[in-house]
Amino acid sequence: MLKEVELAIVGGGPAGLSAACEASAFGVDTWVFDEQSAPGGQLIKQIHKFFGSSAHMAGRRGIDIGDSLRKRAEAQGVHVCLNTVVFGYNDGNLAICDGRGVKEVKAERIIIATGASENVLRFPGWTLPGVMGAGAAQTMMNVHRVKPGRRVLMVGAGNVGLIVTYQMLQAGIDVVAVVEAKAEVGGYEVHAAKIRRAGVPVLTSHTIVKACGEESVESVVIARCGPDFKPIPGTERELKVDTVCLAVGLNPLTELTQLIGCRHEYDAALGGWIPSHDDRMETSVPGVYVAGDLTGIEEATVAMEEGRIAGISAAESLGKVSADKAAALRTEAIGRLTELRSCSFGRYGPGSGFKPTRAADKPGGEIDLSGGLGVIVECDQDIPCDPCEKACPTGAIKVGAPITNLPTVNQSLCTGCGSCVAACPGLAVFLVDTRKTEGDKADVTLPYEYLPVPEVGNEAAVVDRDGKTLGKGRIVRALASAKYDRTTLVTVRVDKAIALRVRGIARQ
Amino acid sequence: MLRIEEHPILGSLKDARRVKLDYDGREIEGREGEPIAAALMAAGVRTFRYTKRFHQPRGIYCAIGRCTDCMMIVDGTPNVRTCVTPVKEGMKVETQLGYGK
Question: Do A127 and A199 belong to one domain?
Answer without folding.
Answer: yes
